[in-house]
Specification:
Blueprint lengths: L2 H16 L5 H12 L18 H21 L5 H24 L5 H22 L4 H21 L3 H19 L1
Length: 178
């Protein structure tokens, strides 16, 4: 359809909506139809490409935090206390970013997984340093993290988290047996 004709039809629909000649739902439907979804409820033009996706930004931030956490934990000569504090701050920031992504009702699955992986690595590092040479505590830490995955997966119906927690528990049990 010609752009000029569309503009005329859109202005007529706005007139009908303002003067209550048609119900608002009908006018909104017609506006969405003729503007191809580029106008909001008030008839203002909306540019959907300007707003960045919250989930993608969250994934980027969390990936950076995970990378920094791994670098601080494994590749620096900082004291253990400083490594623990830094990693704890990264885990806390990761949890806050994940909570923000969930609150914005964006795709939260990948940020949640990154946060859980970061929590797993951090907790294993801390427990391994505190109880040097005792594998029992490291295994218990992994089991607790796996149970956290299973419980979170069950509560929020995140099936891949539930399945990965069960598989990880199975692998830990197999490693204990063999």
């Amino acid at each position: 359809m010609n752009r000029e004709k569309k503009d005329i039809i859109i202005s007529e629909i706005k007139y009908w909506k303002e003067n209550k000649l048609l119900p608002d739902t009908y006018c909104n439907f017609l506006l969405a139809l003729y503007t191809e979804g580029t106008h909001d409820e008030k008839g203002q033009r909306v540019d959907k490409t300007k707003r960045p996706n919250v989930a993608i930004i969250g994934i980027g931030i969390l990936s950076f935090l995970l990378l920094c956490s791994l670098l601080v934990t494994y590749f620096t000569e900082l004291s253990f206390v400083l490594q623990t504090v830094t990693t704890g701050i990264f885990v806390l920031a990761s949890g806050l970013v994940t909570a923000y992504v969930i609150r914005k009702k964006a795709a939260f699955q990948i940020p949640l997984v990154i946060t859980f992986v970061q929590l797993l690595v951090s907790s294993i590092t801390i427990v391994d340093f505190v109880v040097k040479g005792t594998n029992l505590w490291v295994v218990l830490t992994v089991v607790c993290n796996c149970l956290l995955w299973v419980i979170t997966g069950k509560l929020f119906r995140i099936y891949y988290l539930l399945v990965s927690g069960i598989i990880a528990l199975f692998i830990v049990i197999l490693s204990i047996i063999f």
